[in-house]
Amino acid sequence: MMPSSFALPDGIGREPLLAELRRLAWGAADILRAYARGEQPPYGFPPAMSVDHGGEGPVSAADLAVNRWLLDGLAAAFPAAGWTLLSEETAAEMLVPGQPLDAEWLWILDPLDGTKDFLQGTGEYAVHLALVRGQRPVLGVVLLPEPEELWFGLVGAGDAGTGGEAWRENRAGERTPATLSGRGEELVLVASRNHRDDRLEQLLAQLRPARSTAIGSVGGKVATILRGEADLYISLSGRSAPKDWDMAAPEAVLVAAGGAFSHADGRPLTYNSGDVRQAGCLIASHGPAHADLCRRAAAAMALIDPGFAV
C-alpha cells in the first residue's frame, strides 16, 4: 500500500501523532472494559455506580472518564497544536446552533458510540476520533475495545473519495490492511439492531441485499465493511439523526480504504457545518456499487416518503 498524500497542522508529525493516538485508544479500551465488567477503572477514574443510583449509571461514568482521558491526553501531548477539540460530551457548552466553530482543524470525538450495546453487554461499542479540516475528515480512528481492534484511516489529499491508507492494529501493533469485498452483486447489508423503522424496512425491500447482519455502533458496522464481511450500511434519520461524532471517524477510515460514504443524492457528508445532525439517507459502501445504490435508494425514498431530503 503506497503512502497517501496526508496533511496535518504545522508542527504535527505523522508518526508522533499516530503513536499518541494508539496510547490514548488502548487506554480508552482499558477504561471502558473495566466499567463494562464492574471493575475498578484505571488511571484514577472513579468506580461505576449502579444504573438506578441518581441517574449516574456506569454508562455516564464511562462516557465522562473516556472523554476526559482523550481531551486531556491530546491537550498534554500537543499543547501548541493549532486545532480545536470537540466531543459529544462538550458539544452542549461549545456549540451555538447554526454557527460552525471557528477552527480550520477540528477533532470530533465520541468517547462511547453504541451506548445501548454497552448497556446490553453485546460488546459492540466503539470509540471514535476524527480530525476534520474544512468540513471533511482527514484522519479517523475507530477503536473496538472488546475484539481489540484499532482502525486507522488517513485520507489522501484532494476531494472526498481519493482514498488513502487504512489498516487495523492489535495491541501488539501488528497491522492488517482493510480488505473490502469487491462484490458487485449479492451485497451483504450491515444494519442497526436498535434504530430501525418501517421506512427503512421498505427501503431495504427495494434494494434487496442478499443477506443482512445486525451490529451495534456505527464504527462496528463500518468495520464489517472494512473486513469484507459486509458491503453496505444505510442510516435513515427519523425523529432523530446521528451526529457528527457518530459518522466522522468511521467515514474517514472507510474512504481511506477506498470505500464510499455519502448522501443518497451523492452529496458528501460535511462536518462543523453549524448543524451536528447527519440527517437524511446516508449510504456507506465498499465502493463499486455505490453510485447505483445511491440512485436506487433516492428513487425508492421518493416513493416511500415523498419530500424526505435524502
Care to describe what's here?
The protein is an alpha+beta fold and 310 residues long. It has 2 domains: 14-177, Fructose-1,6-Bisphosphatase, Chain A, domain 1 (2-Layer Sandwich), CATH 3.30.540.10; 188-304, D-Maltodextrin-Binding Protein, domain 2, CATH 3.40.190. Helices cover 32% and strands 22% of the residues. The protein has helices at residues 14-36, 58-77, 91-94, 115-120, 198-207, 218-226, 244-256, 290-304, and strands at residues 84-87, 105-113, 126-133, 136-144, 149-155, 164-169, 175-177, 188-191, 211-214, 232-236, 260-263, 281-285. The strands form 3 sheets. The chain has a 7-stranded mixed beta sheet, sandwiched between helices. Strands 10-12-11 form a 3-stranded antiparallel beta sheet, sandwiched between helices. A two-stranded parallel sheet has the order 8-9. Strand 4 (136-144) and strand 5 form a beta hairpin. The longest helix has 23 residues, at 14-36. It is globular.
